[in-house]
């Protein structure tokens, strides 16, 4: 496929500007000589037809949830109703400015106020900010709340954050950015937190624990109440990574599990399409005793009028104004459309789909953990790697030939040759059967012709890349 610059022909264009309808004052030569470009602007010169075909070709070469199955583990790449995009496109939401007087943006303040109420109910929290722009940004914000709490009490000796070895990679990174030392604790052979290791890790220097539940291997930790109790008794606080909330929303609340603060991925769980860099939103909720430290402004209501107020001991701004506001609109629309029962049903269906897929695929593939999973499960291709020299990467590449986006590879790190699969609740039984059929056929081909699998994909526009060369000598821009 040609790049847009390769389609360029000197002198070709696609715009016809109307004649100037105001008096022309001067030629602008002085301005141009002072601030003008010293060389021509390097833009492709193409016709409207060229542009249309170029972006259509790009769209055809891209795989998204509208094209087919996208079982990317830990990412919850589910179909999002277009109604929510339409609501977020209403002029009353798009043609505003965050510095407008409060009386002119009452509808927008109403949305933020209602969204806080709805998502606090879902998470079991008392207050929430929508400033953070993404999940990792939410993690960082939650950790700043924990730090502000300890410092407000003069408890400055708490310098360590405990993170399980199965955590998302952003957890230790966020803790480090917040100024903490990260203490990793191992998982048990069942894939959950090792209680004895946790007890040995906590102490007077423990600021808190970061935990995802269900965890990264797709299991709900049956000891969750004991885990949060151990941390609290040491004087630490508990942070909930909401990346996997899709499995338990409407069923179990982080606040009831003993967590003090939580972030949500509105772009995973609550109806904003994501991937390719955004848009994201990682609102942070907290218990009442942490509410006074929240960033930004609190939205309050009095006699039907909404207004902004300062938090008592705010940590300051973590992003401009109210975060990605239109993402919040989509999320609120999603939650109100489904209602309490619908949100619960979505979680149940996500768990049902994942377990159906897990059981069916276990006829051929090895599961890293045999327990009933939640929204996702992890397979290990270690036996295939040892016996056939077929890796998890090879299986993932082969799925591309079937029009299926590969699952997450080589994560979590505690499982060798891992493939992490999350079908989500929006895949129908027919779609699951197609996915199962592809996985089974690939496994059969791996037994019969492992060389064919190792050279996959065969039907895509670009076949197997030289990944070592791409990593060491990447071409990051077009050479004009």
UniProtKB/TrEMBL annotation:
Please give the name of this protein. Answer: Probable glycine dehydrogenase (decarboxylating) subunit 2
Name any one Pfam family assigned in the record.
GcvP2_C
Q: Which enzyme class, named as a word?
A: oxidoreductase
The alphabetical list of record keywords is: Oxidoreductase, Pyridoxal phosphate
Q: What's a single GO MF annotation on this record?
A: glycine dehydrogenase (decarboxylating) activity
Q: Which organism is it from?
A: Eisenbergiella massiliensis
InterPro entries per UniProt: GcvPB, GDC-P_C, GDC-P_N, GDC_P, PyrdxlP-dep_Trfase, PyrdxlP-dep_Trfase_major, PyrdxlP-dep_Trfase_small
The Glycine dehydrogenase C-terminal domain, residue ranges: 346-448
Modified residue annotations for N6-(pyridoxal phosphate)lysine? 268
Q: Assembly state and interactors?
A: The glycine cleavage system is composed of four proteins: P, T, L and H. In this organism, the P 'protein' is a heterodimer of two subunits.
Q: List its EC numbers.
A: 1.4.4.2
Instruction: Give one GO biological process term.
Output: glycine decarboxylation via glycine cleavage system
Query: Per the entry, which co-factors are needed?
Result: pyridoxal 5'-phosphate
Q: Which Gene3D superfamilies match?
A: 6.20.440.10, Aspartate Aminotransferase, domain 1 (3.90.1150.10), Type I PLP-dependent aspartate aminotransferase-like (Major domain) (3.40.640.10)
Its annotated function is as follows:
The glycine cleavage system catalyzes the degradation of glycine. The P protein binds the alpha-amino group of glycine through its pyridoxal phosphate cofactor; CO(2) is released and the remaining methylamine moiety is then transferred to the lipoamide cofactor of the H protein.
Protein family: Belongs to the GcvP family. C-terminal subunit subfamily.
Q: Reaction(s) catalyzed by this protein?
A: N(6)-[(R)-lipoyl]-L-lysyl-[glycine-cleavage complex H protein] + glycine + H(+) = N(6)-[(R)-S(8)-aminomethyldihydrolipoyl]-L-lysyl-[glycine-cleavage complex H protein] + CO2
> What region holds the Glycine cleavage system P-protein N-terminal domain?
46-297
Give the CC-aspect GO terms: cytosol; glycine cleavage complex
Asked if the record carries the keyword Lipoprotein, the reply is no
């Amino acid at each position: 496929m040609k790049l847009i610059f390769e389609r360029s022909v000197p002198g070709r264009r696609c715009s016809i500007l109307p004649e100037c309808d105001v008096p022309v004052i001067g030629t602008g030569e002085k301005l141009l000589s002072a601030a003008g470009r010293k060389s021509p602007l390097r833009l492709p010169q193409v016709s409207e037809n060229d542009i249309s075909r170029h972006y259509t070709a790009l769209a055809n070469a891209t795989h998204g949830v509208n094209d087919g199955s996208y079982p990317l583990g830990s990412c919850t790449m589910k179909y999002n109703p277009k109604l929510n995009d339409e609501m977020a496109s209403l002029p009353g939401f798009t043609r505003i400015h965050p510095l407008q007087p409060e009386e002119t943006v009452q509808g927008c303040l109403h949305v933020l106020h209602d969204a806080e109420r709805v998502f606090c109910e879902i998470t079991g929290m008392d207050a929430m900010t929508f400033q953070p722009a993404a999940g990792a940004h939410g993690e960082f914000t939650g950790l700043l709340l924990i730090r502000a709490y300890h410092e407000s009490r003069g408890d400055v000796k708490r310098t360590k954050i405990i993170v399980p070895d199965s955590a998302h990679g952003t957890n230790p990174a966020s803790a480090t950015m917040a100024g903490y030392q990260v203490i990793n604790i191992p998982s048990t052979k069942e894939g959950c937190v090792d209680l004895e290791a946790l007890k040995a890790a906590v102490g007077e220097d423990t600021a808190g624990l970061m935990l995802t539940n269900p965890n990264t291997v797709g299991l709900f930790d049956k000891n969750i109440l004991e885990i949060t109790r151990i941390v609290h008794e040491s004087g630490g606080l508990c942070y909930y990574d909401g990346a996997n909330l899709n499995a338990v929303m409407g069923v179990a609340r982080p606040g009831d599990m003993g967590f003090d603060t939580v972030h949500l991925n509105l772009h995973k769980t609550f109806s904003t399409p994501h991937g390719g860099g955004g848009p994201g939103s990682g609102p942070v909720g907290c218990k009442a005793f942490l509410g006074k430290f929240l960033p930004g402004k609190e939205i309050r209501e009095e006699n039907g009028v909404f207004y902004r107020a300062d938090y008592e001991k705010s940590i300051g701004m973590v992003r401009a104004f109210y975060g990605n506001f239109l993402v919040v609109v989509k999320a609120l629309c999603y939650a109100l459309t489904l209602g309490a029962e619908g949100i619960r049903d979505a979680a149940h269906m996500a768990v049902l789909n994942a377990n159906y897929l897990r059981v069916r695929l276990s006829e051929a593939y090895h599961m890293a953990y045999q327990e009933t999973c939640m929204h996702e499960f992890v397979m290990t291709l270690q036996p295939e790697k040892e016996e056939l020299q077929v890796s998890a990467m090879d299986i993932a590449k082969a799925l591309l030939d079937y029009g299926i986006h590969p699952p997450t590879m080589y994560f979590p790190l505690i499982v060798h040759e891992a493939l992490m699969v999350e079908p989500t609740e929006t895949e129908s039984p027919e779609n699951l059967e197609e996915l199962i059929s592809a996985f089974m056929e690939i496994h059969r081909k791996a037994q019969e012709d492992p060389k064919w699998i190792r050279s996959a994909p065969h039907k895509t526009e670009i076949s197997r890349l030289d990944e070592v060369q791409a990593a060491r000598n990447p071409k990051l821009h077009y050479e004009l």
